[in-house]
Amino acid sequence: MKYFILILSLVTFSAKAQTVDNYKNNFASICDDYKKNVFDISICENTINALSALESKISESLFFDKTLTADDKNTLKNIKTDIIGMHHFVGYQQACGQEYFTFDELKKACSILGATYEEVFVGKHCMKIIKTELNGYVCYLAENTVNDHKKFNFKYKRIPYGVGQGESDIQAKGIKDLYNNKTEKDIKTIELVYFNCL
Questions:
Q1: Which of 20, 85, 97, 174: disulfide with 105, CB 3.0–4.6 Å?
Q2: Cα separation values, 107 from 22, 89, 101, 169, Å
Q3: Phi then psi for 53, rounded to 5 degrees?
Q4: How much is the pLDDT for 18?
Q5: C-alpha pair distances (Å), 170 with each of 28, 60, 145
Q6: Is the Cβ–Cβ distance between 80 and 61 less than 8 Å?
Q7: In this predicted model, what pLDDT tens digit does every residue of 53-74 receive, in sequence order?
Q8: Residue 160: what pLDDT?
Q9: What is the pTM of this model?
Q10: What is the DSSP string of 90-120?
């Protein structure tokens, strides 16, 4: 009987470890696919759908799986947090998502993906301007560092494609996308003609 209980315990432990490892591996696979196909026209929707599905599965496991240990639960909660941050990062980097996005999420997502980020045009505008790059895919973002909702307009120049402009708003302590080179792969930098807080 003791031998049977030992075998059952080992099987249960193995199943739990496999479940947690599967979630880790699935998340890593989604991130790898995004990195490799960052310029694809459908990558944003595909990645966000895959992340949402994985987040839902983890939520179900956390709620229903009574065999999870405290360590298992903490691991899954951390993975879920990273998934949500990656969801927001992909949405804003690809300009296909409008959920609340923070600088901490940006830093963590860049770390996971191996992307770079830097503040550009330092001290020249009313918000911080951040440039991210992943496998040649460039995105410019505005960061609102204050606790007030802000509106802004901007105009940028990218040679040889001329100028572009826009107007938008941004939540307190949030981030908003300004420009990406998805359809202009040779453009790696832009010049901000103006950026005004309204």
A1: 85
A2: 24, 9, 11, 22
A3: -65, -40
A4: 58
A5: 30, 32, 10
A6: no
A7: 999 999 999 999 888 999 999 9
A8: 80
A9: 0.87
A10: HHHHTT---S---HHHHHHHHHHHT-EEEEE
